[in-house]
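Why predict the complex rather than its parts? Because the way molecules touch one another can change local conformation, and only a joint prediction can capture that. The input here totals 354 residues.
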Amino acid sequence: MRKFFLITAIVFTVLGIAFTILPLGTIAMLPVAFAIIFSLLAFYKSTALLKKLPRLFLIISATTLLIIIGKSVLIKDRVVADKQFEIKKEESKKEDIKDLEGL
Amino acid sequence: MKKILLSILLFFAFTTSYTQVKPGEKLVYAASYNMSGLMTQLAQVTMQADLVKTSNKSFLHLSWEAATFSKWDSYFKIRDLYETYLDEMTLKPGLFKRSTFEGGYSITQKYIYSSDGKSINGTSKIQKRPETKKTFAIGSSSQDIISLVYKLRTINFGKFKSGQSIILNLIFDEKEYPVSIKFMGKETVLAGNLGRKECNILSIGAKTDRLRGKDKNLIWLTDDSKRIPVLVRFSIPVGTGQIALSTASGI
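Output of the joint prediction:
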């Protein structure tokens, strides 16, 4: 059972890291929450000598969770000024006026 | 993503005056998509109105712009622009343009309305395929998506009874769609920088595969003279989401 909890914890920890890097916002909390749960289960199922690995995954998951919370609180969603798009809009408007002159 | 944006834009129309919309109005929204039960913000949607003058006429220029937040640009960049020009005097649409770029897929469309409003000269281009031209007949009350959305704001839903509905005609992708607008009731919701506002809730229905469920596509319009759209909830084949007003200026 310890092995199962440990493998599941590893899978969810990797997923949690991937989701944190991707712009998925708080949805990344889902795999991280599972990673923490399975790391804890693996930790309690481990003997004193084998607690090192689940503890490591617990620390990684907790750190990932802090990063997700930090990102959602500190980084605001914004749209980058897209010069190419702005130029396209201006050119389009000039073309529109030509079309409107004919109406 | 294309379906999300189309559904976001899929709304309505009627009546005759645009006193609710004045040049200079700018409404900014945050569009979110439901991922595993959590709303994730994807894009910013901006609705603007300004005046454009030609040598002999003035046109009310209404536009909708959608752009993904910078964090999404590397994965799925969206730069959509929907525009319509209405004759300032008659409020009839003269020109409609659509330019969409969604994750590398692009479409451009231009509809020039005939002077009698009974037909459209359409030009469209998908990806790098050759441009196609088509003239097609339309009903006298049919309009493009942007002018319909703005026209919706001219209807006083405050006088409607719960469950009462109207049918409007929408032109999209060179086809006409009857769209039903049903008044569902009132609710007070958060309206960005405007604070909490009492709103009329409307349910949008259309015989299209782009919308799903009964009364699951809803829009909240402020129950005042401006009738500002403050919240949209949509249900489409690939999921659900919402568009919420962040800031309103020039109203």
